[in-house]
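U., I forgot to send this yesterday:
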Amino acid sequence: MSYTLPQDQQIVSLTIMNSELFREHEEGKKSVLDIYAKTEKGEFINIEIQVADKYDMKKRTLYYWSHIYGAQLKKSGSYSEMKKTITINILDFDLFPETERYHSAFRLYEDEEKFLLTDVLEIHFVEMRKLLSLWEKQAINLQKNEKERWLLLLEADDREDIRRELEAIAMKDPVMKKAFDQWEDLSRNDEKWFEYESRKKAIQDELFAAREAEIRQQRAREEGLAEGRTEGRTEGERQKALEIAREMLVEGDSLERVAKLTKLPLEEIEKLKQQLH
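Result:
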């Protein structure tokens, strides 16, 4: 059975907020999709799909939340009329290493007693890689879990196993069937399908570029560590050579012989000899 939101929470309007979306996709640089929704109660919902972790995602989310929330005051002129603003971030990267849960929700609570300051702020993060990991471990049941079902619909185009199970569910779920029917309609429209594929390619290019940058950074760190270890070994060998040089000088060996056998510069051997006297 399909779950329906209460009447006062149903979405009554849907708008793509970012006017630069299409141009940026054409340039192959777009990794964000913003959707702006409004419920019957007048609450605002901002849904963002982010595929590359190239921003300070946490602070960026607060900035955009405040922008949407603050814009209400310009229209109403009254703080009391400002409505709840919800931000939902769907991420194709891991953001919170401190938890294995794929869905994290944040609100404004008092530190000790945990009572709510106000309900106007609500921020959600959905880490899709963690959700996919649960799917691959067979730790979720799409027949029973509607939230996971609709989230994994985002992966159905690339994952045949997910698509097959969702198609089976759609046979009993009229809302999901409608989503699949609209998907089929899109695939039959050449112009819309080309636009979809172009956007998908742009997002994939952005994602691959971000992952390549991560790989390069990791290699640079590893090379830096290796270089540091090499320098450490060289310094250790140099100190040992200096000890041998001191012993040879004490025994009366010539500067040239000491330099030849220890591979140290002659100037350094001369300074060492001066220190011994």
